[in-house]
Amino acid sequence: MINEIAALTSSTDGVLKTSSTTRYSVGTPNLGGTENVAESSFSDAIAQVSQGAIDKIKQGEATAISGVDGQASVQQVVEAVMAAESTLQTAIAIRDKVVSAYQEVSRMSI
Q1: Which of 57, 64, 59, 63 is nearest to 85 (CA)?
Q2: How many Cβ atoms sit within 10 Å of the Cβ of residue 70?
Q3: Which end of the chain is less crowded, N or C, counting CB atoms within 10 A of the terminal residue's CB?
Q4: Model pTM above 0.85
């Protein structure tokens, strides 16, 4: 048993030495892909997320209406309505957090 442990330790020494020497490199590595990224503001991000939520809720309503007309299956209607409900709950939670943060900032003394 001790021989197997010694053999395992000796075989991993090279791996440990290699990883410890390459882990601490000088400078920042170039990861690429950041040249074409456009800057977006917080309001742009919130607008994009809210538009996605609106689209998801509209899709759920449209699927529910087509289910009433008999054009969509019950499973499709349930999935769309549950996705819309989840999106609405997420939007409400985000709204509550934003209102709470605004109230916190307004209570700060300058």
Answers
A1: 57
A2: 7
A3: C
A4: no
